[in-house]
Design brief:
249 residues; single chain; Nucleotidyltransferase, domain 5; alpha/beta
Length: 249
């Protein structure tokens, strides 16, 4: 570890290595909205996107699940509900809860944040998100919502909701199957950055998970030249438009 810290200090041109508590205190002071704004700038797009919504969890217990089960320990975790751009495999927005809650409560927030970063053509969700309210929210943001119906044997005339009736008649299975990509994204985050949260307070837990999301998106952008080119192209166009507007004034 000392050797690793020496390498980090040389790479970043640091005169001395900061104590780990300095980073913890900085994380406690930092507002989550700043990190969310960083995610927003990383995932901005001019193209219409297909976005999937799903949830997972990050463990708060550092000991093994086996020994925790022996002593009768209750599994503790932070609920992580996210929206992901299926085409670029980037997390566009997240919602965190202290404990397990109904994931549908996070849908309005996720759709609002995602629509701000670019246009969305379709939202995808599993059976848990089957609700006429979610269809209406998607239409409000200029998109459609696709989720499999919970009770498939119910006749169409007894099915509630116009949009849910449409899905009963014609369900786009090929389009919906792309939803599984978000599960692969969750797997990649946990495999590369870990599935445990080490912070004690909920605010620092939230910041830690947000930084994990930023790290994943940044890694995805750097390691995919096509996405990186599109990202820089959008930034350069924005700079030129701003300069042209100032000259015109």
């Amino acid at each position: 570890m000392p050797r690793f810290l020496e390498l980090v200090s040389v790479e970043l041109n640091l005169l001395r290595i900061p104590h780990f508590s300095t980073i913890s205190k900085f994380s406690l002071r930092m507002k989550p909205s700043y990190i969310e704004n960083l995610i927003f700038n990383l995932v901005k797009s001019n193209k219409k996107r297909i976005v999937a919504i799903d949830g997972t969890g990050f463990s708060l217990i550092k000991r093994s699940v086996y020994f925790g089960a022996i002593v009768g320990e209750i599994k503790q975790f932070v609920q992580y509900v996210a929206a992901a751009d299926i085409g670029r495999k980037l997390i566009t927005a997240i919602s965190l809860k202290r404990k397990k809650r109904n994931e549908n409560t996070a849908v309005p927030q996720l759709m609002r944040k995602t629509s701000k970063s670019g246009r969305v053509s379709t939202y995808l969700g599993d059976k848990l998100y089957d609700s006429e309210k979610n269809h209406e929210l998607a239409e409000k943001h200029g998109a459609i919502f696709i989720a499999p119906l919970r009770r498939e044997n119910v006749p169409i005339h007894r099915r509630k909701g116009i949009n849910r009736k449409k899905l009963t008649r014609n369900f786009p299975k090929k389009l919906y199957n792309q939803r599984s990509i978000i599960e692969g994204i969750f797997s990649a985050i946990k495999r590369n950055f870990g599935q445990m949260i080490y912070s004690k307070k909920f605010k620092t837990q939230k910041n830690e998970v947000l930084f994990l999301t930023v790290a994943y998106n940044a890694d995805r952008l750097v390691n995919n030249p096509k996405i990186l080119f599109t990202f820089y192209k959008a930034v350069i166009l924005k700079m030129y438009k701003k300069r042209f507007y100032l000259k015109k004034r």
